[in-house]
Amino acid sequence: MKIKFCGAAQTVTGSQHLLEISGKKVLLDCGLYQGKREEAYNINKHFLFDPKELDVVVLSHAHIDHSGNLPGLWKGGFRGDIYATPATRDLCAIMLQDSAHIQTRDIEFVNRKKIKNHEPLFKPLYGFDEVRNIMTLFKCMPYNKKFSINGFGGNVQVTYFDAGHILGSAQVRLDIKENGKNIKFGFTGDIGRPHLPILRDPDHMGDVDFMISESTYGGRVHDKAIDMDAQLLGVVKEALQRGGKIIVPAFSVGRTQEIVYSLSKLFSKNLLPKIPIFVDSPLSTNVSDIFKLHHECFDKETAELISRGVDVFGFSNLTYIKDVEDSKQLNYFKGPCMIISASGMCESGRIVHHLRNNIGSEKNTILIVGYQAPHTLGRRIVEAEGKQGMFVRIFGEEHAVKAKIYVLNSFSAHADRDELRDYFGKFTKGTLDKIFLVHGDPDQQEALKSMLGEINYKDVDIPAKGDEVQL
User: Fold this and answer.
1) Which of 118, 179, 188, 432 is the most buried (most CB within 10 A)?
2) How buried is residue 65: exposed, middle or buried, by Cβ count under 10 Å (0-12/13-18/19+)?
3) Residue 264 has pLDDT above 80, yes or no
4) In terms of Cα–Cα distance, which of 202, 168, 141, 139 is closest to 294?
5) Inter-residue contact 138 to 120 (CB < 8 Å)
């Protein structure tokens, strides 16, 4: 058995891990790399394997950095099965269409400049046809039910365990028979946190021999998830004193729904005045509808609220916006309000326009509630927090950062250092032979490696992109 690390190696985006088992190939996730536009385009255009040679894809969850290059596989000739949980499949159906739309629009913007400079033009990585075709390959599998993947003669069985990260997110356990040996192999996907709103807590997949683990926050400690409501309350109250707009870049899947859920509780307890709340993202609106279809992913509190008829993703002062003209009208809205919009890293979508129009006023607030990858607009805004005279480039123009910047890490959907310590503490000592750390910046990976050593995991590797390991 061999592993090739094809993405999210010493970085956080573009998850792709290739397993070769008895001559057949399994790809764990197929995400888009996100970062500088031209660099990302070139990385995403070229796989470190031939898609035609893949037998199956096993998908952990629907976030674009884990699923976003699936249509690129179709374009490259892949025609095998894609396994996912039902919620992941439903989310991918709309998220991949949205990704194709964004790519087409962004390529048009970039090519206008290239035409002026007489440079070769870009083409989208994929279009709507590739999205429609790749969706025909999905096979849905529930949590906690072992299944054999097609074409492996029963020698590879997979079980999905709830990861508690986003709707439908899963840890992957593979039970492999190869050359007379039984191998138990684990892939964390992205591990969520205990006590996050809406979703169940992460499950334990049982003991395994080898593990590919995310390491996004391997060296950091978040504020507790149970403090979400109180922290959000404090930020909104302070922002209202300045009387401006509160701009919230938020991922369409998970983060937007968590913020709406938290706000609904604050409003229901009369802890906040009912200012207008706008979710300005067609994708977020559609995702919220999909959330309502998948009660199997909800925790006890959310399930009980829904059973009592409570709309946990809606309230009287909340407006979901799809139409682009309605979105533009928010520029002229007078008085305090909150605008929640995608993308979460501020690299594309309507949030970029809202930031351009509002970042230069001291009355306004920018609330960051999710991870911001290096070289993204979101990361540059985070780096401007609390500093004077900072500028960020938006649509090719420099804008002074005068709005108040808040960063709330209690909303993070990734396990932090202490939560990862608890996670790995559940495995029987001596059974987990080797851990590979992926999906993390190098400093966070080194910190997690050190922590794992403290709890007696001695064989921990941090692979580089393209590394191959024979097990």
Assistant:
1) 188
2) buried
3) yes
4) 168
5) no
Q: Give start and end residues of each alpha helix (H) in 117-176.
A: 128-135
Asked if 125 and 41 count as a contact pair (C-beta separation under 8 A), the reply is yes
Q: Tokens 């999909």 sit at which residue? A: 290
The Cα 416–Cα 192 span in angstroms is: 9
Task: Report how far residue 298's alpha carbon sits from residue 302's, in angstroms, rounded to the nearest whole number.
Answer: 6
| Three-point CA angle 205, 210, 214, nearest 5° | 70
What is the rounded distance in angstroms from the CA atom of residue 318 to the CA atom of residue 139? 35
166 vs 95: CA distance, rounded Å? 14
Looking at residues 53-77, what average pLDDT do you find? Answer: 97
Beta-strand ranges (E) seen in 22-134 are 24-28, 56-58, 81-84
Q: Which residues, 6 or more positions from 130, have their beta carbon under 8 angstroms from its beta carbon?
A: 71, 72, 74, 75, 100
| Cα 179 from Cα 147, distance rounded (Å) | 21
Nearest-5° angle of CA 313, CA 363, CA 251?
A: 35
- Kindly report the pTM of this predicted structure: 0.89
Q: Whole-angstrom Cα distance, residue 215 to residue 178? A: 29
Q: Confirm if 143 and 161 have CB atoms less than 8 A apart.
A: yes
Phi, psi of 125 (to 5 degrees): -60, -35
The tens digit of pLDDT for each residue in 27-57 reads 999 999 987 777 888 899 999 999 999 999 9
Contact between 436 and 470 under an 8 Å Cβ cutoff? The reply is: no
Q: What is the largest CA-CA distance in the chain?
A: 70
Give the SS3 label for residue 318: strand
Query: CA 84, CA 101: separation in Å to the nearest integer?
Result: 23
Phi-psi region of 251 (alpha: psi -120 to 50; beta: other; left: phi over 0): beta
Please give the single-letter amino acid code of residue 298.
F
Q: Report the chain's mean pLDDT, rounded to a whole number.
A: 93
**Which residues lie closer than 8 Å to 140 by C-beta, 6 or more apart?**
84, 85, 86, 89
d(Cα 224, Cα 408) in Å, to the nearest integer?
11
Residue 107 CA to residue 115 CA, distance in Å, equals 12
CA 395/CA 75 separation, integer angstroms:
30
Residue 212: closest CA among 25, 392, 471: 471
Token pair belonging to 369: 């509630």
Q: Which whole-number Å values give the CA distances from 353 to 188, 202, 335, 342, in the listed order?
A: 35, 36, 19, 10
Range with the lowest mean pLDDT among 300-304, 398-402, 464-468? Answer: 300-304
